[in-house]
Amino acid sequence: MTASQPLPRAGIYRILVCRPNHRLGNTLLLTPLIDELRQLYPGAEVDIVSEGDIARDVFEDWFNVRQVFCLPRRGFKHPIAFLRTLGKIRRTRYDMIVDPVLRSGFSRTLTRLVPARYKLGFSDVPTNVLTHAAPTAIAGAHMAQRPVNLVRWAAGVDTSRAHPPLRLFLSGAEKAEGRRVVDALIPPANGDEPGLRIGIFGNATGSKRYGAPWWAEFMGTLGPALPTARTLELIPAHGTSMLGTRWPGYYSSDIRRMAAVLAALDVFITADCGVMHLAVAAGVPTIGLFRATVLDVYIPYGHGNTGIHTGDANGRDTARRVLDWIALLQRVAPETSAPRPVRGGVMASPQRAEIARAMLM
């Protein structure tokens, strides 16, 4: 069915979000929804259904999140653990359930199985599972913004205003430790002007990955243009440098420690991957490089972040576009970061209108 009346703004206190997925990026892309629920229903408590353990790290210290239910990965291969967790979820009668993604049969099945007064999701065909079935036309392009548009549509509020950013709440102690690690790994040379602290992550999955020769060409162009910059490589989960160990590296299997180190940088450059979304959530201005996935769906938005569709461009030409963006960052000085001025960087090709639009997304 399609809702005939908007959701009430009072009387909703227990909310369940069904997003059974184990990937870091997809979990972080859920944070704008949790932020939107906090704003729409500040007196409510949110539970989250995820898969694997990563969501517990992402939603640690969120004031409106009560519990994260972590289903076992490939749950149907672990039926006892799966059914035990499902039983825990069903013990609470929720006021509202949000099925936040398009065309997810697993999320919809969980939404069907758990009792609630209101159930939200996307559907262009009649369904008796949802009390508020939003047409897919209102979803929008960006994966993080679709569930925000869903709850705004269901609540009858303005869907056009700015969307909440990706967010990860790091403690003061975590941020201080991240700064200490960065200062130890890439200290200023001989007491010179500190320069930009630039992070590089050279890994991605499948066709999203750029090869070692491409990165060598990219870094060979970027480095000379930013002679005072200090470069730190973030090492992938497999523990091997993607840049030939030419720069200091930081490795951690703990996403919160990695986020704390990212938060201490001035700029972060990465291929499209989960670590890209982690950097955005940590608050460092992030430049995502896209060669395979759809830019509009995953682009880092807001606060100085952007995405560059590289296609088949070589590392040299891509580095020049990145230098354009870094130079503009110094001029605009986004509110979440105030990097030091670039020295030696130039605006190589004027794409400023495109860049300015992306900064305001």
TrEMBL record:
UniProt key word Glycosyltransferase:
yes
Instruction: Say yes or no: keyword Transferase present.
Output: yes
Q: Read off the InterPro entries from this record.
A: Glyco_trans_9, LPS_LOS_Heptosyltrfase
Q: So which domain of life are we looking at?
A: Bacteria
Keywords, alphabetical = Glycosyltransferase, Transferase
Q: Which Gene3D superfamilies match?
A: Glycogen Phosphorylase B
The family database entries (PANTHER family) matched by this protein are listed as: TETRAACYLDISACCHARIDE 4'-KINASE-RELATED
| Annotated protein name in UniProt | Glycosyltransferase family 9 protein
